[in-house]
Design brief:
By secondary structure, the protein is an all-alpha fold. The protein is built from 14 helices and no strands. The two termini are about 40 Å apart.
Length: about 260
């Protein structure tokens, strides 16, 4: 913990903390630390294999104890882990198992089920299973009324559906989703989410050649995200968006500066 207090991105310390937590029986939090370790060192094969073993062992333990709630949580972690690692067949297989836990028990009208479907939808999208992704998102939208608008999961629904629409080049629909998301995050204590949604909306508007409107959202995003290094991919998207907008306006020198 001391090392992490000094450097929260130390992969060795994150992995060690995950191992300690797993040894104390906290499989869920252990998985979160392993995911953080892999995120800062994504191509570390040893960490990947260790995470696979940890999640598998934790799931086996939950099954042995007939602890279905823990298994549901762990399956959700496993979906996101395989998706982030690009292991799409494993992510899809885990998504099927996670859904079965709810559906076999008749638990298909709960927020927990909707959250799982959202994770499944993102896995389907990442794997290129767009029809399955849209179907899952449609079901998740039915649970929109179960959560207050201030709940971050509602904005997350619209942001993630927008990503699916962008990948399938449904730009108008993507804009509609992102406007919903932007409205929901305007009063979020962390303005970063507003900046990200504004930047994503600008990207879709640029594909529709609504350059002036896109620039207004890019300026909003820039005010919020400025100061982050260009290596932050959200801020890089803002800079690239400015480049695209200036190019559409024929301001080629400004476009080049933004791209650089």
């Amino acid at each position: 913990q001391y090392v992490l207090n000094q450097d929260e991105y130390n992969p060795q310390a994150l992995s060690a903390m995950a191992t300690v937590l797993y040894a104390t029986g906290d499989g869920v939090q252990s998985g979160e630390y392993f995911l953080r370790a892999i995120a800062v060192q994504p191509y570390e094969r040893t960490l990947y294999e260790q995470m696979v073993r940890t999640l598998s062992a934790s799931i086996a333990q939950a099954q042995a104890e007939q602890d279905m709630e823990s298994e549901k949580l762990l399956r959700n972690e496993q979906i996101g882990f395989y998706r982030d690692c690009g292991k799409f067949p494993q992510a899809l297989g885990t998504a099927a198992k996670a859904r079965a836990l709810f559906e076999n028990a008749g638990d298909t009208h709960s927020i927990s089920y909707a959250t799982t479907l959202l994770n499944c939808a993102n896995a389907y999208r990442a794997a290129g299973k767009y029809q399955d992704a849209f179907a899952a998102f449609e079901t998740v939208q039915l649970y929109d009324a179960l959560l207050p608008p201030t709940d971050g999961r509602v904005a997350s629904l619209w942001n993630n559906l927008a990503l699916l629409c962008q990948e399938t080049e449904q730009w108008e629909r993507a804009c509609s989703c992102l406007r919903r998301a932007l409205e929901l995050v305007q009063n979020d204590p962390d303005p970063t989410r507003t900046g990200i949604s504004a930047a994503n909306l600008a990207v879709s508007l640029l594909r529709l050649h609504r350059t002036e409107e896109a620039l207004s959202y890019l300026e909003q995003a820039d005010r919020i995200l400025a100061g982050k290094t260009p290596s932050d991919f959200h801020y890089s998207a803002v800079l690239a968006g400015f480049g695209d907008a200036y190019y559409q306006q024929g301001k080629f020198e400004l476009a080049a500066d933004a791209y650089e």
